[in-house]
């Protein structure tokens, strides 16, 4: 009798509604998730920026051409893009934690091997593997941020990730300049391995989505093809990819433009990266502050328009004859910052618009969005190794930005273009 009463009491207690957690308690897991997500995005982006100031040194030390050295950037971007849809599938099936830890193991291991590598071809292979790990970590970070909610709130959270991106954009380049001046360029890979390890420890402690196991019967390819038929997903995704490709193009040519054309030292070029970081930070803050009132679609269009205008002015800069070198340096840096600001507004807004257009299969939508953006950037980065003339690469950058604006100048989900 007492046992039955005890079981009844247990059932009654179990049936009691959970006491709502206080707002600070409820937000603690979200803040931890955002913190780790920011660290992973920071790590993935820094794998590019900490390396950029040393590209001329890589060219010299390994005895390779400028195009070969730049190819190590292109292959990193391609490596980050190629398996992104598979990372999305893994995150949905095996869970966010297991998948992101697998990506970080690849990243840390390849970074450690890069610190020891002395072969030119080994550099390319290991940079590709490093890209695979970095791309997986970055996209799964966005997936578990997407798990926190969609809509304009997602754009606000993605703008916070953009602040991590910008920290790596400016801070990574600054650190890379210091490494290039006071240490060997391979020391940067040691730093990346250490930061990746910290990211793995953080991800291991998060309460992440456990995955669906084998429960889901719909094929992966069928899901992705279905998502691709949604114009409100596809247009902003491609636009964000074109904007990202523009930034990757600038990152690939900038070390040679600043150090060879403008004769800046390695550490001076690293210092300039802080300006680019501030520009991206300003764009990310604008999205974070204005998305609730202006909306993601409008901010996406503003970003693409700023990038297009800045790209056209870059063409004008290289067309004008007799511009003093110092003046040209100031204008070029300012326009680079403007392009960076525009991308900071375009990318998180376009991803939020695209992913929010897909009501089901959120992890797949985020992964496909990242795959398309990275793939577009990878193709452009590979092509960019052939662009050694300032006017030519500036024309390509302007064309990419203009195409991005053409895709988003009207809201794909609203034919009138109004919110």
UniProtKB/TrEMBL annotation:
One of its GO terms (molecular function) is transmembrane transporter activity. It is a multi-pass membrane protein. InterPro entries: MFS, MFS_dom, MFS_trans_sf. It holds the Pfam family MFS_1. GO terms for cellular component: plasma membrane. Keywords: Membrane, Transmembrane, Transmembrane helix, Transport. SUPFAM superfamilies: MFS general substrate transporter (SSF103473). The chain crosses the membrane at residues 34-55, 67-88, 100-118, 124-145, 157-179, 185-206, 227-248, 268-287, 299-320, 326-350, 362-385, 391-408. Residues 33-413 form the Major facilitator superfamily (MFS) profile domain. Residues 1-29 are annotated as: Disordered. It is found in: Cell membrane. Gene3D superfamilies: Multidrug resistance protein D (1.20.1720.10). PANTHER family: MAJOR FACILITATOR SUPERFAMILY (PTHR23502), POLYAMINE TRANSPORTER 2-RELATED (PTHR23502:SF132). This is Predicted arabinose efflux permease, MFS family. The lineage of its organism: Bacteria, Bacillati, Actinomycetota, Actinomycetes, Kitasatosporales.
């Amino acid at each position: 009798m007492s046992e039955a009463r005890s079981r009844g009491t247990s059932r009654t207690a179990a049936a009691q509604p959970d006491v709502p957690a206080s707002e600070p308690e409820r937000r603690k897991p979200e803040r931890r998730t955002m913190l780790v997500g920011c660290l992973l995005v920071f790590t993935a982006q820094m794998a590019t920026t900490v390396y950029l100031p040393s590209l001329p040194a890589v060219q010299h030390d390994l005895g390779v051409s400028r195009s070969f050295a730049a190819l190590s950037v292109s292959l990193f971007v391609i490596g980050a893009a190629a398996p992104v849809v598979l990372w999305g599938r893994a995150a949905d099936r095996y869970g966010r934690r297991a998948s992101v830890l697998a990506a970080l193991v690849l990243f840390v291991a390849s970074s450690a091997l890069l610190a020891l590598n002395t072969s030119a071809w080994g550099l390319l292979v290991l940079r590709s593997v490093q890209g695979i790990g970095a791309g997986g970590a970055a996209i799964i970070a966005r997936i578990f941020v997407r798990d926190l909610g969609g809509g304009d709130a997602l754009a606000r959270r993605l703008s916070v990730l953009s602040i991590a991106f910008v920290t790596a954009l400016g801070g990574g380049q600054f650190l890379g300049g210091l490494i290039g001046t006071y240490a060997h360029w391979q020391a940067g890979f040691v730093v990346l391995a250490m930061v990746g390890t910290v990211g793995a420890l953080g991800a291991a402690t998060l309460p992440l989505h456990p995955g669906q196991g084998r429960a889901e019967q719909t094929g992966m390819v069928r899901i992705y093809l279905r998502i691709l038929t949604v114009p409100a997903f596809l247009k902003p995704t491609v636009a964000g990819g074109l904007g990202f490709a523009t930034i990757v193009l600038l990152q690939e040519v900038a070390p040679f433009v600043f150090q060879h054309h403008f004769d800046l030292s390695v550490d001076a070029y690293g210092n300039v990266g802080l300006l680019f970081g501030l520009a991206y930070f300003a764009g990310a803050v604008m999205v974070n502050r204005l998305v609730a009132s202006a909306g993601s679609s409008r901010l996406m269009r503003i970003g693409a328009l700023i990038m297009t205008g800045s790209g056209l002015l870059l063409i004008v800069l290289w067309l004008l004859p007799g511009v003093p070198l110092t003046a040209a340096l100031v204008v070029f840096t300012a326009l680079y910052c403007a392009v960076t600001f525009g991308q900071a507004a375009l990318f998180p807004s376009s991803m939020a618009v695209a992913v929010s257009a897909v009501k089901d299969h959120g992890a797949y939508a985020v992964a496909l969005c990242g795959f398309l953006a990275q793939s577009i950037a990878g193709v452009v980065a590979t092509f960019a190794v052939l662009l050694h003339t300032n006017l030519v690469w500036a024309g390509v950058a302007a064309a990419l930005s203009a195409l991005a604006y053409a895709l988003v100048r009207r809201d794909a989900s609203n034919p009138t273009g109004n919110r």
